[in-house]
Amino acid sequence: MSETGIPTEKESEFTMLFKQLAVPLASEVVDVDLSRSLDDDSFKAIDEAFNDRGVLVFRGQQITPEQHIRFSRRFGELEIHVLKQYLLADAPEILVISNMMKDGKPVGIADAGQQWHTDLSYVEKPSRCSILYAKEIPAPGRDQTYGDTCFVSTEAAYDSLDPDMKAYLGTLQAKHSYLKRPHIRKKLSEEQKQAVPDVIHPVIRTHPVTGRKCVYVNESFTTEIIGLKPDESDALIRQLCALCESERFMYRHKWRVGDILMWDNCSTQHLAVADYGPDQHRLMNRTTVAGPAVF
Ligand code: SIN
Fold first, then answer.
1. What pLDDT does residue 142 have?
2. What whole-number distance in Å separates Cα of residue 267 and Cα of residue 290?
3. Ligand 1 binding pocket, CB closer than 6 Å
4. I need a surface site. Which of 60, 131, 132, 261 has the fewest CB within 10 A?
């Protein structure tokens, strides 16, 4: 552990090596094979590092959907996404994110996560974490990568606020809606829309494990700060989103096939960079771990 409390590079008792990837968040876990069942000590080391760092990267993995689900279940129950058309037929815990087509139909969500967001902030009990496995990436093997995913630390964003602003924001609540974005609304049937009513969460939430405070307002799903006039509410949402999305709180992941990435949906936000064309195939499998009510 460094003097700042951020793990730098350490060997756990279980010969697990964590390499820090950026200052406020993200570490790589070296030499772990997630196709195998983890013993309790190894899982504990990963779980602790995850709660501390917000994003963990595992390179060079080769896992089946069943192994992906087994690893994910160590962190909690799995969510079944409302967009049922993009779930694996024989493993509905897996949501497919892809721009590929099969028999004239999209195999997954082509435009998932292309604005800053945190998964499932639009439900009463948002996801604890999401675990994404890269099966195909655009233009592999080149120096330039495409379809990177960027992460920011909402804890670091909170910590950067002055005490008066922290106290003010601590009194506020915000509405979150899955239907905020027209391109999402378009994909949903009436029944699917009914399944995701708007919800209200505190603007500043407390991490359920670490107790650290995080800014919980995001560009994709936060529609309104309760009790403010519409122009004040819009301005505050813009201000908090701009703060969270700042490069000083960011880690940008350059994907390789076989990467598994997991991120904390309380202490981070993420964005999938849409800089590749329809002929550059990207195929990812995601599990979404359930989380507690926000407080
Ligand atoms: C997501 O928001 O879950 C998608 C992230 C990605 O495809 O990089």
1. 74
2. 15
3. 97, 112-113, 130, 132, 149, 270, 272, 284, 286
4. 60
pTM of the model: 0.92
272: its two tokens: 């999938």
Strand 204-206 to 27-30 pairing: unpaired
pLDDT at 92 over 80: yes
pLDDT at 196: 87
Q: Which residue has the tokens 């991490």?
A: 207
Q: How far is the CA of 284 from the centre of ligand 1 (A)?
A: 8
Q: How far is the CA of 14 from the centre of ligand 1 (A)?
A: 31
Span 34-48, mean pLDDT? Answer: 95
- State the pLDDT confidence band at 2, using cuts at 50, 70 and 90: very low
Q: Name the residue at shortest CA distance from atom 1 of ligand 1.
A: 113
Q: Which residues of 83-96 are buried (b: 16+ CB within 10 A; e: fewer)?
A: beebbbeeeebbbb
Residue with CA nearest ligand 1 atom 3: 113
Closest by Cα among 295, 292, 259, 260 to 77: 292
Mutate to test the pocket of ligand 1, among 82, 184, 286 (most ligand atoms within 8 A of CB): 286
pLDDT digits (tens, 9 = 90+) for 181-214: 877 777 788 888 888 899 999 999 999 999 999 9
